[in-house]
Amino acid sequence: MSVADQTEKLRHPEKAHKPDNVVRRKPEWIRVKAPTSPEYAETRQLMRGLKLNTVCEEAACPNIGECWKHKHATFMILGSICTRGCAFCNVETGRPDKLDPHEPENVAEAVGNLRLSHVVITSVDRDDLEDGGAEHFARTIRAVREASPTTTIEILTPDFQKKKGAVEVVVAAKPDVFNHNLETVPRLYPTIRPGARYFASLQLLARVKELDPTIFTKSGVMVGLGETREEIGQVMDDLRAADVDFMTIGQYLQPTPKHAAVDRFVTPEEFAGYATLGRGKGFLLVASSPLTRSSYHAGDDFVKLRDARLRKLATAAE
């Protein structure tokens, strides 16, 4: 076994027995430059100094160079090891870390140091915890709110499957945006997201709106996994039925040969078509492009989202 195989086996032990899939060469429209800016190095040093994880690094996000140049990092709380083993995700899987009791305050300190006007906070899945990490999310939201009162807060949570009362705890902390990704179409869940349930995720998003209609809700999918346009249209309808405000659509990129293969690279024109389709279905905002990710340009998108709601309310009042 090569060193590379051994490293991969340790990072994703549940995938070690699987045959390799060919990693396809990316088309020109999806290639990005390696991160080299001084700001990137400064952001990385700050994260290491505060012992913080970022999904930018752990999930091998292609936009890390651009985002970190502007010091826009997405924090990943609840440790760096996930209890799920999704076929698309590069986050390490296995026995999870102990919770760091200082993590909420450290995230808040980093938000202040980076002078973020908008912050995105996500996490690994923590099926081992009684509340799935809900109280830790709430503590982090409150810590950031206290340290940086003008910073708007967006969270990207797990599905809190079988964690009674978890979503209520997080909503009570009043994030500005509550994001939970469906990731793909329901037909592909058994192979791409086997530990999750499509309709449970939809119900979580609907529950957030029931609890607090003022919180923006958001969800995203990857394309290029074998889904059809009709299936994406149905996912849009399902999200709108759950009163979700904002949808993101991006190209799936295969992290390693052990991960799910890319079925095809969706063209920029097709992404533009998805954006038009989503707007027609009533989303306040749709971000759809090959490099779109949940937190990509999240601060700018939040401003657009807020403005879109105000326009909708003004129109309804006329």
Summarize the structure.
With 318 residues, the chain is of the alpha/beta class. Helix content is 40%, strand content 12%.
Description:
It is a single chain. The protein has 318 residues and is α/β, with parallel strands linked by helices. It has a single domain, classed as Alpha-Beta Barrel (TIM Barrel), CATH 3.20.20. Helices cover 40% and strands 12% of the residues. The protein is built from twelve helices and eight strands. Strands 1-2-3-4-5-6-7-8 form an eight-stranded mixed β-sheet, with helices on both faces. The radius of gyration is 19 Å and the shape is globular. 44% of the residues are buried. The N terminus is likely disordered.
Strand order of the largest sheet: 1-2-3-4-5-6-7-8
Stretches where pLDDT is under 50 for at least 5 consecutive residues are 1-9
Q: What is the CATH topology assignment?
A: TIM Barrel
**Quaternary structure type:** single chain
How many beta-strand elements? Answer: 8
CATH homologous superfamily grouping: Aldolase class I
Question: Which structural category fits the helices and strands?
Answer: alpha/beta
Terminal Cα span: 69 Å
The Cα radius of gyration reads 19 Å
What summary fits the major beta sheet?
8 strands, mixed
Query: How does CATH name the architecture?
Result: Alpha-Beta Barrel
Q: How much beta, percentage-wise?
A: 5-15%
User: Helical residue percent?
Assistant: 40-55%
As for the number of domains, it is 1
What's the tally of helices?
12
Main CATH class: Alpha Beta
